[in-house]
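User: Structure please.
Assistant: Input sequence and predicted structure:
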Amino acid sequence: MKADLKAVQDVVELISGGWRAQALHTAAKLGLPDHIEAGLTTDAALAEATGAQEEGIRRLMRLLVAVGVFEGSHLTGYSNTPVAEALLTRPGSLRDMCLLYGEEFYTAWGNAPECFTTLQAGFELAYGEPLYRYLDSHPDFADRFQRTMKAGNLFFDYVPEVFDFSGRTIVDCGGGNGHLLSVLLEAAPDARGKLLDRESVIPLAREYLSKTVGLDRVELFGGDMFEAVPQGGDVYLFCRVLAGWSDDDAVRAFEHCRRAMSGPDARLLVLDRMVVDEHSTMLPALWDLHLLMTTGGRHRSVDLFTSLLERAGLVVERAAQLPMEATALIAKPRS
């Protein structure tokens, strides 16, 4: 019986996906998009600029042209495509994401069989400690992680379109470097903000917020959202921070917010990717597995988040869709 050539091709495409990812990682590591942007468009010039072998550059570029990262050839010279431009060293670049996913997180995925068998995080298996503890003791990695998170937050600019933050006190629980809070405060000039995160993250948030909305509009709190949250907020936010924690942990954080809310008009927003088991699309399914690899966590469904919020005395008022298959759940105190 003849082989199913389409099936064979599909298998080859799947198993070679890691090679393409590592080729892209190498391009980012060597800064090839930046060098091409600067006018170094030949194999020889790129090799000299990066310290690589000219043959290695030619063979790497052959693949990256084939997959649409660059255009041209070793005969005509190379140019950047929009994909390569997304890796240029500039604000909003995906370069740090490419480096992180091609190094530490790629190593974590190397433990996939044991991870799926034991449900222990691949990162912990690879590095001997949980991701967040590793972040606290490796500041360079933590900086790259925060920049990666910022680059992946493409839906932030759309959050003010699904909820009105005007005149409110916004409490961002696990707010990282303050990117989301700055976007919301810029969209609502009469709003004020409070940011809660680990003590080690607060200096990053202070630096970022001082350059964007100014520290006169924000208060920074170092602490643990599972122990306490700032009091008196009109809006409490949880943006992509609960996936690595248990359902009971999430309920405990929601309960703290419920008790700390300014009143019955206060709201709690969960911003995250939501999974479905039937007819799933690619991004939520992929990132759900990636969470297992990095933190041992998972994405939750809308129904599960709804039940956790209800356990904490909150009721989902509505759901709104955001770009990159993210969802905003808006919950209010139960009457």
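The chain has 17 helices and nine strands.
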